[in-house]
Amino acid sequence: MKGDRVEIVIDAGSGTTRTYEIVATRAGRKVGITHSRGVIEVAETTRGGSTVRTARFLSNRVLALVEHPSSDTPVADEISPALRSV
């Protein structure tokens, strides 16, 4: 859903951190997280399952992974007009 976002905080070394954010930029897209073999992958995908963008992080460097779901009220792009019967 448009507005979904994932915030990733990683250890950049020397006591510093970096924050990355992956956002579902258009209606119908979603952000998914997978974790396997020491790698965390955050991907934005379309309704059809095609990957739009991907970010990969080493799991031992990730300090925080926060999912921010979009609001429950639909955005103007996602509102479809109701069919009226005559």
Structure, described:
- This protein is mainly β and 86 residues long.
- The chain has strands at residues 5-13, 16-23, 30-36, 39-45, 51-58, 62-68.
- The protein has no helices and 6 strands.
- A 3-stranded antiparallel beta sheet has the order 2-1-6, with no helix packed on it. Strands 3-4-5 form a 3-stranded antiparallel beta sheet, with no helix packed on it.
- A hairpin with a 2-residue loop joins strand 1 and strand 2.
- The chain starts with a strand and ends in an 18-residue tail after the last strand.
Mean pLDDT value: 81
Total strand count, please? 6
Radius of gyration computed on alpha carbons: 16 Å
Shape, principal axes of CA atoms: elongated
State the separation between the terminal residues, measured CA to CA: 32 Å
**What is the ordering of alpha helices and beta strands?**
EEEEEE
Q: Within the largest sheet, what's the order of strands?
A: 2-1-6
Helix content range = under 10%
Q: Supply the helix-strand structural class.
A: mainly beta
Assembly classification: single chain
Task: Enumerate how many helices there are, as a single number.
Answer: 0
**Uncertain ranges:** none
Largest sheet: 3 strands, antiparallel
Strand content: over 45%
